[in-house]
Amino acid sequence: MLDLATIKADKEVEAIMVMSGKQIEALGFTEHSRRHAGIVSKWSGEILRALGASPERVQLAEIAGYLHDMGNCVNRMDHAQSGAILAYKILTRLGMEPTDAAEVMMAIGNHDEHFGSPVSDISAALILADKADVHKSRVKKPIENVLTANIHDRVNLAAERSYIATDREKGVIALHIEIDTAICSVMDYFEIYFGRMQLCRRAAEFLKCRFSLVINGAALL
User: Fold this and answer.
1) Terminal-to-terminal C-alpha distance of the chain
2) CA 35, CA 56: separation in Å to the nearest integer?
3) Rounded mean pLDDT of 179-192?
4) Domain ranges of the chain
């Protein structure tokens, strides 16, 4: 089976990842480059591994996690769909079986909260891992005054740490976030991430789990 190391080393993947990062930076969005790709890849695999998925499913989730935002090299609009098609073509070129490549394509095409849905275990894990990456290091543009920055930047700038914890026995997938409430209130977080949290809840339910959101140690969902 095609491994993640081979995909990361591919020149076409590298070129697309670099261009995706450039476009996102030019548009002023939070970081969506190799740092984010690596974290989402790791967490996607960890979620399925914790739930007892086969090594093959875990590996496909890791691959989907790494490639999920490559469509940003085309345009931010509909990046999930364009990225899904790019990923399928690259993976089959590298020798992945079409059925496996289609699994990755489907997961990537469904990771965005505007049009996505958890339609497989891989897509569900990808959704949860992607939405869990909230961190101040993702804000790349200069911010003169944190308190007057736009709400998306404030939420990320306030996030000191975030991670996903999967408890198979209790059937809970929890997103833990530590935020500096002097920069961003909990209500600010809900204002911009409510749609994402709804998608996370559906993704956890697809995996036969309950989604929990824990901010500064307090369970809010």
Assistant:
1) 38
2) 24
3) 81
4) 4-219
What tokens were used for 78? 């509909």
CATH of domain 4-219: 1.10.3210.10
> What tens digit of pLDDT does each residue of 66-113 get?
999 999 999 988 999 999 999 999 999 999 999 999 999 999 999 988
Could you tell me which of 90, 111, 112 has the C-alpha nearest to residue 101? 90
Q: Comparing C-alpha atoms, which of 30, 92, 47 is closest to residue 67?
A: 92
Predicted model pTM: 0.91
Dihedrals φ, ψ of 165, to 5°? -120, 125
Could you identify the residue written with the tokens 């990808």? 126
Give the lowest-confidence range in 68-82, 105-119, 137-151, 170-184.
Answer: 137-151
**3-state class of 119 per DSSP?**
coil
Average pLDDT, the chain: 89
Q: What is the CA radius of gyration of the chain?
A: 17
For residue 83, what is the enclosing H or E element? helix 79-93
Eight-state DSSP code of residue 136: G
Phi and psi angles of residue 141, each rounded to the nearest 5 degrees, phi first: -80, 155
Structural contact between residues 61 and 122, judged by C-beta atoms closer than 8 angstroms: yes
d(C-alpha 184, C-alpha 155), whole Å: 6
The SS3 assignment for 150 reads: coil
CA distance 107 to 68: 8
* CB neighbour class for 12 (10 Å; exposed up to 12, middle 13-18, buried from 19): middle
